[in-house]
Amino acid sequence: MKKYKIQDAPFVVPTTDGKVIEEHFGNATDGNSQLSIAHMIAPAGWSEPFQTPAFDEYTYIIKGKKQFIIEDETVVLEAGQSIKIEKNTRVQYSNPFTIACEYIAICTPAFSMNLVNREE
Question: What pLDDT digit, counting tens, does each position of 17-40 carry?
Answer without folding.
Answer: 999 999 999 999 999 999 999 999
